[in-house]
């Protein structure tokens, strides 16, 4: 099953190479080929290859790519920080995997991310952190 799927995905490339090869063979051995090489290339690349692309659905994939906003894609390509803002967990995993942070820091930040998944949890986390800092700064207030 996966062999057929791979063949379908690579079929236009295979057909392009076959057309190119047939044209070169016709050019190298004109006495063996009843069709001139330039006819093979024109028909192969202008008719056969587009039909194969349509039959395998590659032409549809290209149309879907054309519908996307190219400026949006280029902005994402230029600014990797924007992508990491959308997925902080992936950024955290990447930094841990690259050795930028140690395991303890990774676990601490992971807990913080999980605690702040929605707005209510984030607000509660900020309030709790503010209270903890105030208590650390003024230990006499706790004992009074």
Automatic annotation (TrEMBL):
Keywords: Membrane, Transmembrane, Transmembrane helix. This is SHOCT domain-containing protein. Residues 87-114 form the SHOCT domain. Residues 68-89, 126-144 have a biased composition (Basic and acidic residues). The keyword Membrane applies. The lineage of its organism: Archaea, Methanobacteriati, Methanobacteriota, Stenosarchaea group, Halobacteria. It holds the Pfam family SHOCT. The chain crosses the membrane at residues 12-29, 35-55. InterPro entries: SHOCT. Residues 59-89, 124-144 are annotated as: Disordered. It comes from Salinirubellus salinus.
